[in-house]
Amino acid sequence: MATTGSPSPLPLMALATSFWQFKTLAAAYELGLFTLLSGGKGVTAVELAEEFGIQERPAEILLTGCAALDLLEKHEGRYRNSPLSEEYLVPGKAGHLGGLITMFDQRLYAGWDKLTTAVRTNRPTTWDPDKERSLFESADPRMLEVFWEAMHAMSTQTARTLGEHVDLSGYRALLDVGGGSAAFDIVLTQVYPNLRANVYELAFVAEIAEQNIKAAGASDRVGTINGDFFTDPAFPGGHDLHLFSMVMHDWDETRNRVLLRKSFEALEPGGAVVLCELLVNDEKTGPLPAAMMSLNKLIETEGRNYTVAEYATWLTDAGFADPEVIAFDAVGANGVVIAHKR
């Protein structure tokens, strides 16, 4: 028992068991629970056991756990999807984030299990640097597919929030540096009809982007440019807006300074660069999502999550002027740092 004046141990217990909550979500998603319950009349534990070919005991426990996590609601003895689950955990829905759950469960969970090793060695644990070039070129094709699906879902949600909070109406040509699946470009060119965009990516990633662009009916406003932003001598020209979304946190300071220098040199005068990230506060005490993502970078990359002050210094050293931060809350970012080429 805690002595008078001592802090309660309950927050520590909640923290220590937090992985129980994630694994409940992951198991329910993997089993197809939210798909089964989508738009239907719901199920009882007996019915779920019969549907999944499992015993009633685990069926009842799983339903209870998901209801406690607000993933399910219970009405007249029957469990249904909560609005949260119906919106984001049902495949085929526009907001589907199931790829993230699968990636966290099948890729990152094992890597985080070796976090102590990552701290001791300063090496990633989700892939082998001695055998693979980077996490973006996994030897496992299925896991690579899951990774890009997850990134597209997270980026789509983040891009919508960015488009609501950051005014890009004064720009005409966006270069999305390391733009991955083209999620930001598809969304931002929808929000700003006068904007056209190019995804600047490695050839195999550009192929993924092209598939998403075509599927979204965005080929008339979004294109791709094959390249390697480190080895290419210069970024493609002709753009008055550069975007680095969840790119900087993958690399160390030296490489990020190289990217910003190339950006400044290629950007049209009067243009702007936008860094979209989970930003760590200048005291390096949080916020929690940014701090945890930084630890995730420890098991995944050579990078970490940086502060606004760090980005501002790099930007001004590269030649940019007037760096400012615009804060918001999104799935993959808590704000942007914007600077201008005068």
Multimeric organization: single chain
> What is the alpha-carbon Rg in Å?
22 Å
Rough shape?
globular
Q: Average pLDDT value? A: 95
Cα separation of the termini: 63 Å
- Succession of helices and strands: HHHHHEEHHHHEHEHEEHEHHEE
Structural class: alpha/beta
Question: What is the helix tally?
Answer: 14
Portion in beta strands: 5-15%
**Proportion in helices:** 40-55%
Count every beta strand, where a strand is a DSSP E run of 2 or more residues.
Answer: 9
Low-confidence stretches: none
Largest sheet: 7 strands, mixed
Instruction: Order the strands across the largest sheet as they lie in space.
Output: 5-4-3-6-7-9-8
Question: How would you portray this structure in words?
Answer:
The protein is α/β, with parallel strands linked by helices and 342 residues long. It is 47% helix and 14% strand. The chain contains 14 helices and nine strands. The strands form two sheets. The chain has a seven-stranded mixed β-sheet, sandwiched between helices. The radius of gyration is 22 Å and the shape is globular. The termini are far apart. The relative contact order is 0.09. The model has no long low-confidence stretch (mean pLDDT 95).
